[in-house]
Structure formats: structure tokens, C-alpha cells
Amino acid sequence: MGSMSFLLPNPLPAAAEATLRSACLAATASYFDQTPVPTTLLTVGDCLTLTRTQNESGYLVLPWPVAPFGTLVVSTTTLRERDAPYRLLVELARGKLNQVRGQTAEWQEIGLRTAPDFDLALADATRDFGRAALAEAPAEADALATRVLEQAHGLADRLARDYIEQMFATRHAADGPLDTRFAARFVRAPRLAAAEEYGRTFTATSVSFRWCDVEPSESQYDWTEADAAVAAARAAGPAVTIGPVIDLAPGMLPAWAIDGDADLPTLAAYMCDYLETAISRYKGDVRRWIICGGFNQADACGLVDDDRLRLAFRLFEAAAQVDPNLELVLSVAQPWGDYLVAADQTISPLTFPDDLMRAGVRLAAVELEFRIGARPRGSLPRDLLDAARILDVFGLLGVPLEVVLSFPSCDERDPLAADHQQSVWKPGWLTGPSPATQAAWGGAYAALALCWPQVRALTWDNWCDADPHLVPFAGLIDAAGRPKPLLGRLRTLRTEHLDVIR
Fold first, then answer.
1. CA distances from 133 to 44, 62, 88, 284 (A)
2. Which of 124, 173, 218, 307 is found 20 to 30 A from 15 (Cα to Cα)?
3. φ and ψ at residue 249, rounded to 5 degrees
4. HSE of 473, CA atoms in CB hemisphere, 13 A
5. How do residues 177-221 score in pLDDT, each as one tens digit?
């Protein structure tokens, strides 16, 4: 057993009281892909102690309130185990400042130009950190470290936005308008007025229908809504994607398939039969399929992670047998690996697709789910620089990347999301999720994904709040059909950067 202790600031920020329980440790070996390990927490007075099975160096990861950004996941640099506790705020400031300095140097090497005032601000933050690290009085150290943490996050945000702007300029100079697929996912065919809004904003379409709706009873299919949705997608243009066809979130699978004592071979047979039926029905019109989603994270079937890996392999094998020329995509949940804090989870988000490819699965792309602020399927909030880093990490797979985005516009209970046991992650919102915060987050993350050379498709996860969905109130139009502010932001991105796919 290994442990690390951290001295908490006194007084502890109110927002941090609710987020400390999400703290965890990560092993040094997982630093590159930022995945945590199962961790036990103990707070005694002003000291937080975290324990794990490994006895080695590592780093701390936890959500922490950072003005003016709200609560964001912050990590330390690699720390060795020692008897004396670390001062929490000093180590968080060191970690973020180190990330900004390292990423700045890396991007400058490939041509990023930083403004003189950015360079001066980074130097100032570095000097302030030196004073925080050397301060003897705890209150002074914490105050200085808090300032550095805020400075570092401000610099991280500016650095990422400068990178986005310059990457767009570089790509446009070389290639003109980008040909990235840009879509929103819908379950039902949009109404006429909404369809016009959709066509003005997006260059492609994405359809996702739930297995439980299509096959409510074994071998009894109802394709009515699915046919209408695919027809609407085809009418909008040829760039159509269907999926995830099999999603393991609660409420997605038909009860008859998972009730009782169905073993893995039986469940695989049910899923393959449905998948093959769906592909055979639409393969003449749709060539791109997201085969499965959420398999790396959790499921409603009680399967261990190795079983889910084998099941995913079987599904891709079945899809390829229907038509070997289809483009087959794997969707990866929680790409930062938040789920690995559970002791029964052992396969990281990066390892899951890598294992499939090593086993012979032909992946046309890997889709990363950036569902922020919803639990248990979504990820904890992270800033743009962390998002850029995780895109770099998954680029190591050597296949094109696709990104699906989702963010709540309200923190009220959403009955449709509750059907899938999903809710808004409550702790740490600066003002609470709203249409304005959804627009700010969605516009920034969409720009990052669109500018990234390896990202070939960007999808907003839910078109309308009236359709079935996972993240509460994350649609681009509300249940009454009124557009939210984010739709205008996304339309601007299309106008400025994208070419219609012909």
C-alpha cells in the first residue's frame, strides 16, 4: 500500500468541500494518458490522505474551484511518497504551471507565436510560484499558490485559444475551407422549421436510435421512427452516420435481452443479430457506422471489462461480415479515464481501442465522448488545454479521431436523461449550467476539435431536448423547438471554417 498526504487550506473553500471526495491518485506510468487508480480517501483535520495499492511515485488529480472558471480538474506534477504531507495548493499550482510551461514550449517548437505580454505573464506566474513554494507561513503560501493557480489557468485558456486561432489560419492557408464532418445527432426526424435551422448550421448528419425502441420484443421490429430519421438525414445530404448502434448505458438495451441469466455468448448473439439487421437495412444509403458506445466504461449488463472487450470485438467482426467496405467507428466514453477509480475497472480508454486493433479489428476512426458535467457517463470538467492534451494522447493510436460534445444547459432534473440514470454533476458550478454557459463551453470545445488536424468529424450529441438523450438538457434546441444560443455559435464556426461535404 502507498499513500500521500496533503495539507488543506484553512478555511477550505466551500466549493471544495463537495469535490474532495472525487480526489484520486494516478500512477507515474499513467501520467501520459492521465488515468487514475482506485484510491481510498481519509480526511483528518486539515490533512487529506490518499491511499492506493501501488507503492510508488504518482500524482494527485482532483476537481478544485478556480476563479473565474469554476471547478476544474487539476493535477499535481509527479510526487514521491514521503512521511511529511505536501501543501495541497502549492502542488496544484506547481502542476498547472508546469503544464502551461511545457505545452507552451512544445507548441512554440512547431511554430506557435505567443505575444510578449503572454510571455511576461508566464514569467510573473513562475516568480510568484517561487514565492509560494518558499513561504513559511501556511496562510501566505496558500494565498500565493491560489493566485498562481488562477494565473496558470488563465494562461492555459489563452494559450489554447491562441493555438486554435493559429491552427485554423495555418490549415486554411494550406487547404482552404476544412472538410471536417460537422453534425448534430438526432433520434427523430427534425420538424420542418428545425430542419432548416439544422441545414444552415451543419454539413453532415448523424442518426442514433435506441435498440429498446426498435426491437421492444425479441424479433419484433419497429423501424418507423428510425426510417423517418434516416430519410431526413439522407435528404440533408450524403454524409450520414448511424450510431452508436449498441450503447451500454442503462435504458438503451431492450429488457428482454438483459433480463434473466443470459450469458455472454447469448447476449452477443442478441446484439449481433440486431446489429446485422440494422446494417443490412440501411447499408445501401449509409456507409459510416458507430458500432458501439460506452463499452470501455460501464454497462447495464453486469459484464466485467474483459467481457465487454470481447463483446466489442464480436460486434465489429459481425459488422465487417455484413459489408467489409463499411467505415466502422468505436466510441470511447470518459477519455480521461475517470471511471478507473472503481476497483473493478482495469482497461483504460486508450488501451480499449488499442487492444481491439491489436486483435485485428479494422477501425476507421475512434470517437471520443466529451460529455462534460453529467454523471455517471460523462467526464468531470476540464479546461481547453487538458482537452488538447487528450487529443494528442489518442492521436498515438494512428487512426483518425472523431469528437462528440455534450454539455447541460440546466441543472434541473431531466426525465429523459433520468431514464438512462444520468444527472448533472452538481458540485462546483460557478453559476450553474445555463444556455449561456453551454454556448461558451460548446463554442470553445467545438473550435478546438475543428482545428485539430486528426479530427475528421465533430458531432453535437443531442439535437433536441425532446428526443431521448444521455446528458440532461444538452440539446441545441429545447423541447418546444426554440434554438439555444449555442446553435448560433456553431453556425458561426461553420461559416468561418467549413466546406460543405459533397
1. 24, 20, 11, 64
2. 124
3. -65, 145
4. 23
5. 999 999 999 999 888 678 889 999 999 999 999 999 999 999 999
Which architecture does CATH list for 177-497? Alpha-Beta Barrel (3.20)
Q: How many helices (H) and strands (E) does the chain have?
A: 15, 18
As to burial, measured by CB atoms within 10 angstroms (0-12 exposed, 13-18 middle, 19+ buried), residue 59 is buried
Please state the domain extents for the chain.
2-170, 177-497
Q: Which three cell numbers stand for residue 195?
A: 430542419
Task: At 37, list the grid cell.
Answer: 487508480
pTM for this predicted structure: 0.95
127-139: pLDDT as tens digits: 999 999 999 999 9
How many C-alpha atoms does 266 have within 13 Å on its Cβ side?
A: 10
Give which of 249, 246, 356 is closest to 306, Cα–Cα. 356
Distance (Å, whole) CA 201 – CA 25:
42
Q: Which three cell numbers stand for residue 165?
A: 486561432
Give the helix/strand (H/E) hosting 6.
strand 2-7
The string of DSSP codes covering 262-276 is --HHHHHHHHHHHHH
